[in-house]
């Protein structure tokens, strides 16, 4: 096993619908054509709204269980997220993300002055750079993420951008502005993904939800629910599943598999091989202490 064999970068491109990714992300599709990436269609959970789906992506639990039912629910998660599980396994975590991610897994409510940059090894997100305006440039989010990656060498790095979603709400999911936002992110990934791949990181690129032509999401249509999942560095998902829409609940346990940490009891293990730890797990007492420190009692 190489030094980075259990290191994972997850990129969530907020608001990226599946068909837009397959049409406009030329670099990512080039890697698919070359057999270096696989792309799967994922069907988001309902409601297809951002904050509920951040919780779905990172805890593998449906809204009916986790209680994050709408965007206005501002509180810490009560579930065990991939961040929690990674820290309990003595792995380092970091995130460059929208401030709602901080409110779920670090502290709530978010204070733009004091919570912009966070460093606390006892929290689920040990090193965080959080932004609070939807038009904060995606290029800056990736720059924030690269700083965290180089400075703190996290095993689990979570990157979450907002410009695609912002363009979709402003101009619609079939507008030229939305298309340009998708193409721009593809260019950013074309700069960074080769470096990550060369360094041996496993990489997952996906989205929370899509966007309809009217600039809305939250409902049940394919434009709102179908999102891509590009994978590099893992061989768990079988190719025949590409013709179907994978349940979004499978992504959190997939992240755990890539990291070599045991999924939580609430996560599905369907389609995954039996758990084999990548390294010794932390003692039970340490795990319990971390859970208590992060308001999961």
List keywords for this structure.
297 residues; disordered C terminus; single chain; alpha/beta; 38% helix; 9-stranded mixed beta sheet
Low-pLDDT runs: 1-5, 280-297
- Describe the biggest sheet? 9 strands, mixed
Radius of gyration: 18 Å
> What is the mean predicted local confidence, pLDDT?
91
Structural class: alpha/beta
- What would you call the shape? globular
Q: Name the helicity range.
A: 25-40%
Give the terminus-to-terminus CA distance: 35 Å
Side by side, the strands of the main sheet go 4-5-3-6-1-7-8-2-9
**With helices defined by DSSP (H or I, 4 residues minimum), what is the helix count?**
12
Number of strands: 9
